[in-house]
Design brief:
about 120 residues, 7-stranded mixed β-sheet
């Protein structure tokens, strides 16, 4: 299995910056994509950004130009660099890892880290 531990959340003023970290451990060979999601008002997980093992990134339109997802060299830690934060960015942010085991899709989630952006 894969364990994901997020850190870096906190409170920031609008226009400020935060960097979230997600440290992955366990069966990392099963993972091909890692990303960040946040909850909408209906408690649904909405994609913020993702990155594949090959370095291909995907961003939600509402964070393009403000957020950047990166990974370290061994691909065990993923970061979300957030700039120009807005109050509507306030949410719990969850790290996600996806892959496959014996061709069966697997999906792992961290515990979440809260980001609060004040006006």
């Amino acid at each position: 299995q894969v364990q994901l531990v997020e850190s870096g959340g906190g409170s920031v003023q609008a226009g400020g910056s935060l960097t979230l970290s997600c440290a992955a451990s366990g069966s990392l060979w099963s993972v091909n994509t890692m990303g960040w999601y946040r909850q909408d008002p209906g408690n649904q997980h909405v994609l913020v950004a993702s990155i594949t093992n090959d370095g291909i990134t995907d961003y939600s339109e509402f964070v393009k130009g403000r957020f950047t997802i990166t990974r370290d060299n061994d691909k065990s830690t993923v970061f979300l660099h957030m700039t120009n934060l807005k109050p509507e960015d306030t949410s719990v942010y969850y790290c996600n890892a996806r892959g496959a085991v014996s061709q069966v899709p697997v999906n792992y989630w961290g515990q979440g880290t809260r980001v609060t952006v004040s006006s």
